[in-house]
Amino acid sequence: MKRLLRLAPLAALLACGSNPSVIPSGDFSGPTGLAIAPLPERDLLFVANQGANELRAIILCNAPPNTPTTCTTKEDRQFLPGPIRLFAGSILAGERPLRLAGARLTDGANALHGAVLVAGSDPVLRVIDAANVFAASRDRAVTAEPPREVPLPDTPVDVVAADVPAGVQASTVTAVVATQAPAGGAAALTVLTVSLDASGLAQATPTQQCAIGFVPTRLALIPGGKDDVDVAGQPKHVYVADGTPGGTPGGTGDGAVEVSIPDIPACGPNRCVPATAGPIPLCTVTRRLPASDPADSPRRARPLRSLALSPALLLDQNNTTAPAGNFMLGVTAPDASLCADRGVRACDPSIAGPGVVCADQGVPDCGRGRIVILGNNPATGQSALLAVPGVVPAPTATNPFVAGPPMAPLRPPAPAREVAFLGRGTCPPATGDRPDLSPPCTSARIGVNTPTAVPTVKQRATIGLATTEDGSTVFIDVLARRFFNDLRDTLPIPFQVTPTTTTPPLLPSPVPAAGQEPTALNLQGAGSIAGTQATGWLNAGVTRQATFRVAWHVALPGLESVGGRLSRSGTGPIVLTLAGMDLTRWITSPELQLSAGDFVRVISYSPAATCADLAATPLELDIPISAVHPNGGGICGSDACLELQPVHPGFDPDPACFASGDVGGTFGVHAGDTAAGAWLVSEDNVNVLGRFPHGGQFVVTGPRFDYPLDFAPETGLSPPPPANTFAFSFNVNGPAPTFAGTFFFVQTFDGTGVGIGPAGQPLSAVSSLRDLSTAGVPGFAGPILVYDTQRTPDQIVFTAITGSNSLMNAIPAQFGVTANAFFLYY
Question: Which positions ≥6 away from 546 have C-beta within 8 Å?
């Protein structure tokens, strides 16, 4: 599904692209928010072009095939033109428009009259009348009116508008905007009524407002306009992603908050005008949907940066339907407490023993970009993380709540940014060549352009979507609680995702003595304990793409090159004083464990080192440390110092050499043959995992990022896959290396890699969609809009690729079948 190796860019070629009334410009510049504004026989897809302080609009004809319509094929999927019709129009929308919401209004003649709400980087909500913009693009006599502006308490974070079901007449639409907290104040929600004024132009009037005591990041309403609405068809709840850093598990900064819209206090006589409305009352009727795992120890709050709620889902031919809002996808925000939460851990008693060192990889990227899947029931006030795959019975579309340990967050190959659902409550008529239109009629054709895969249509009640920082859109099998995989889910023979690793030689490679085996890094043999049954203790869904540097007698990080002063009294130890340093963190670090038995190497002496005993710099001499004084005291005064054992010959200077008091140099502090071990393991050249002794075993554990293995659904798995388990284990044996800095360079692979794209991007079997041309290299995919239209029986996915300045148009059910299933606007 993912890799159309050469995309057909419909950018300047099809150019008609925005609107008329202002200066036409060329390409997208940081596209972000997306919204649909309906009009008679066509919809306008608005794109927030933040780099140019404007919106662009694309015309989408929406009449069924072979139906007379005023929307012609020449304008379908084209940019709304500017005054010079060869160029895309530009709709000015204030400073840096970021988030959009479309409102489906009808006018006095019951004709569709859409509007788009714009949240930018100033404390104003702008309302753009789509009908007026379209009319001005067709008729020079029509003036494109400037956006209506609604003052807000502070800069808006997000805006959403209620869905109106097709065929329903709506003179008003409810919208909600979240604003950030002003200095000394609180973030707020403002409810607005979107309607047409006496002149027939769209307007938005604030009607309710309340303060929230957390950091809002995104908003969502239960989609469809049929579930979770009152008798007037207005939404009952708005969902707010809580991005508060350093939160409390189960409280502020964990998951999302459901806010009752009818219970938000009404605006006073001043209509919620920020300057005169007075203090904003608190939102009082709320429900928290925690994203954290109650079974974690310690339990950690998971702040969210994005969220989406599922639509109504038609499940079978008997018209069994799951109500909208039964599932929530959330994307985690970074958590500072996870940034350094890695390294040495106590080994499980089942594997503990002399020379065995255990370390955890921790959560990559400080925890950002993971995907949580929750069940939700607004009627009963219930929410919970879905149970881990392998429990029986499994969650269903109608009952997401089953007993079992909560599943771990999924993590795509690159951190996720935004989420959405494919799914629908009604199906178009199925045909002989399209049996996938029978319930459940949500499908994606995966495996297209993946080597050895067999393109296959997968039908599901719902399919999750997530955009990522590398520009991909990945596909989530929501009820299976895992990513789709182009190989596992398409091949006619069983395919299991299998992690692998390399077993490299020592570098540089010394020549062993005659009859002696070389120093070797060996994968730990398979065991009988859960998680150790594979050689190397690799586990699918836990072992990830990583590189490990296993180095002998290497310089300790942060002490590779330090300046110090040398001194000596009589025949005692040489003292290396490190002015201004505190060695406590190197001593107390479980990963580094600086202590007596480590050693120092001289990099250079200072010019004052003029005595004969210091004439030659012993660059490759290991000078043992006999004592470490972390931060002063005794012989060190107020500074940190190391007591060094004399080495003869090479480093046994006469005390007279230091009479001037300013003899010193530059030194490196190395891991030696201490109880901590002479080998230092680091991951991805950044993260130090720990030390272990020669002849010992190093065990790497890690958090789960997927559940890729198949199992019999009737029997499940016992025990269910753990959220954290073994990722990799090895030992080093043979003769000890002969010089410092010798290392092994080891790589682990998660079993999903399938090659490299034309522009050098790594390709993964995790089912996804991505622009692999050089234009797509910057990536950084943003908001997703799932679009239903009578013009095609399939749902269409629009994705703003912010980093690549493009807009992706994709039909997942038709990948590899039609040329229009995937193309880009630049």
Answer: 361, 683, 684, 728, 747, 748
